[in-house]
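fyi for ur records
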Amino acid sequence: MEHVPSPLTHSVVPAKTGYDLWAEHYDGEDNPLILLENEHLPQLLGPVSGLVVADIGCGTGRHALRLARSGAKVTAVDFSPAMLQRARAKSGADAVDFLLHDLAKPMPFPDAVFDRIVCCLMVEHVANLQSFFRELRRVCDPAGLALVSAMHPAMGLRGVEPRFIDPATGGRISPQSHRHQVSDYVMASLRAGWRIDHLSEHALDAALANRSPRGQKYVGWPLLLLLRLRAEHFGTCS
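which gave:
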């Protein structure tokens, strides 16, 4: 394996500051989490044509733009102006309603307005999970669902957190995050009124690792957590 030099520095910065800095390089990075998510999330979400969909924590728009191309009416929200600037510059962005908003605050939407919600690789940066999940529940239609992905908490056992290498300095920058456990996500969603109908944990296999040199050292280790939440209260967890 190619030797990767250790970063010269490691800085933990406020989450918004970190993602503003990350935006320029985000889409071009080798990111095994995104590879794993792309393998598993679309089939859990199902068809979206004709549905009203929210992408909460949309970043540079990778889900929002795909969902719009699939026929959804998409509202995409993020707290990073630089991330949104990247998203708005992409082909097809005029089909998405991009909105700058601090997701630590109540969302500026009416109750029950979205048929589907995706919230991908951002809940690690939410301090008050129960309040956040309650807001997701409030804006979701009673017949709707939400998909939530997160870096698996097991990565914390290896000292891994959301981070990137600044190409200009070689230093590592970590947007501030919280070391939530799987039980924290489960209990916050249940207490917020959701029903969990899917929970899965995913690791890189050899085939995906061949596409992600950065991820090769994590083969077989839990890397991604996925939750599918239903707004109605009947049924069983699977």
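The longest strand covers residues 140-151. thats all i got for now
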